[in-house]
Write a structure and sequence with these properties.
six-stranded antiparallel β-sheet, nine-stranded antiparallel β-sheet, Beta-galactosidase, Chain A, domain 5, mainly beta, single chain
Length: 380
């Protein structure tokens, strides 16, 4: 049934009731928690019409409280790592809480652990959160609004934020996917196509080195359909640094003129997932990038591509084009990155010993890709 319904999901340690909200267009259904704004479940019909849960998630609220993999959650203030937990902005140095060795990753007590305020707006679920000045070490008060909508076999995520002082902001969602089903094991046979000519090399702590490198001739060239597990154990330094793929890819196009980002297909279920920027953004000039909300569309079909898009065959040069701020997607999957702790969930017998066989797929789309992070300027 199309629409939105809600149900109790359980209580966290401090006694707060966590709710699960189901959004549906009559074809696919998405379960969202107010804890972390988490995508807990995504039910999609396979080629035979059987409903398959393609999003990894837990069946109990306690597991979400204690897990440290950001599974399905909204990420903020800043997605990915900030080296040594330090940055400078307008001549002032800031120190953040660290949680990934000596680095800051997503947030030690980030948006994934917060209780979001929830309202419905027609067929959309609207989540809001206030991050106060000094939160985790970041300057400025940040007002965040995330809108989830399910329509036409697609999950649409609209991110917006406003700050009262210059700060860093890089919002995303950390959903993990397995298009063969959450409990189907490895995604190694699923095929991915990624519309990117360049990637950001990283060191052995997964910190970007501040350069863009062409994917041509490397295992990171995913511009044509490639089995996810085909190269994740290759001896290339970039794969060995992070135990597979955990990189930013600079997408073709520029802000306001983006091509679809990625397409993944499962041969077992026939389900195809396409990740793309919002079509409405394609008509907005790149010169207005500071004012853009960030919108991501994730569309599902069975035994048919979501659209007829193909990566451009235009030859690339040794350096990326100038005059545009590149958008980027962070893609993570691999077979050798160790887990730091044993965990058990409905989908993922996730232990240090079995993670190699069960590593899922993570794709996150960002509107900018910088070595030094984007400043959010307050509205005037």
């Amino acid at each position: 049934m199309a629409g939105i319904r809600q149900e109790p999901f359980g209580k966290i340690a401090d006694g707060h009731e966590i709710m699960r909200y189901w959004l549906s267009d009559g074809v696919i259904s998405v379960g969202i928690l107010n804890l972390g704004g988490t995508i807990q479940s995504v039910l999609v019909p396979d080629r035979s019409g059987k409903m398959i849960d393609v999003a990894l998630g837990y069946d109990d609220v306690h597991s979400y409280e204690v897990q440290d993999k950001f599974i399905g959650a909204l990420i903020g203030r800043f997605g990915n790592r900030i080296a040594r937990g330090k940055f400078s902005l307008d001549g002032k140095d800031y120190t953040l809480r660290t949680n990934d060795g000596r680095n800051h990753l997503h947030g030690r007590h980030g948006f994934d652990k917060r209780l979001w305020n929830v309202q419905t707006d027609g067929d959309s679920l609207v989540l809001t959160l206030t991050s106060p000045d000094g939160d985790e070490g970041y300057p400025g008060t940040l007002q965040v609004c995330v809108r989830y909508t399910v329509a036409n076999r697609a999950l649409i995520i609209d991110y917006q934020a406003q700050t009262d002082a210059p700060t860093l902001c890089n919002l995303t969602n950390h959903a993990y996917w397995n298009l063969s089903g959450h409990d189907a094991g490895s995604v190694g046979d699923q095929k991915i196509t990624l519309n990117a000519d360049y990637f950001t090399p990283v060191d052995n702590e997964a910190i970007p080195l501040g350069t863009l490198a062409p994917v041509t001739g490397t295992a990171l060239d995913l511009r044509t359909p490639t089995a996810i597990g085909a190269h994740w154990d290759d001896p290339e330094e970039q794969l060995q640094n992070v135990g597979g793929y955990d990189h930013y890819f600079a997408l073709r196009g520029s802000i306001g003129f983006l091509s679809p980002t990625a397409e993944v297909t499962s041969p077992a279920t026939g389900i195809t997932m396409q990740v793309a920027p919002c079509p409405a953004c394609s008509s907005i000039p790149a010169t207005r990038w500071k004012a853009l909300p960030r919108v991501k569309t994730v569309r599902f079909t069975a035994d048919a591509p979501a659209s007829a898009w193909k990566p451009s065959s235009t030859p690339i040069t040794s350096t990326p084009p100038t005059g545009h701020r590149p958008s980027c997607a962070r893609v993570r999957f691999g077979s050798t990155r160790p887990s730091t702790a044993s965990r058990q969930s409905k989908f993922y017998p996730y232990t240090k010993r079995t993670v190699q066989a069960h590593c899922p797929l993570f794709i996150s789309v960002f509107m900018k890709c910088h070595k030094v992070h984007h400043r959010c300027a307050p509205d005037k």
